Amino acid sequence: MGRFFISIIFILFVYLPVSSEEVEKVVIDFRTGSIEKFEFYLLKGVVNNIQHYRNSLKELKVVVVVHGNGYKFFIKNLDKSPYRDDKELKKRQKEFRERLENLVKFYGVKFEICEAGLKARGISIDNLYPFVKPVYSALKGIVHWQNLGYAYMLFE
């Protein structure tokens, strides 16, 4: 009988949702066009930090608002964009897309992108990866998430 109660307590402890006190939230202002910074800070850094929180039985919610020079990492067909001549990006695009998809699928990262900047650069919304949500402007997206309690972080 004692083992039964211990098992129930263990199951409740492991499977109960994380309380709001154990959830940290960050909105990342992502505007770099540097492949090195994109890979180090976004693809590796975000994963490492989310995993650190998970290892501590806590949660880190991440929203990335893309604008500036960061558009190029979220485009399906580079030939139909201002980044058509970026050889290094073309060479690594498939790898980057898979890693971005993993951030969404396994780590719950949300991606938003500035629609005003897309229009200014002649980039079609249809040419974005399906996991990227257009927002009116980067400012609107960042302010929205900050008003919901997300801390601000700049990746430039």
Automatic annotation (TrEMBL):
It comes from the Bacteria. This is Uncharacterized protein. InterPro entries: DsrEFH-like, Sulphur_relay_DsrE/F-like. Pfam families: DsrE. It comes from Persephonella hydrogeniphila.
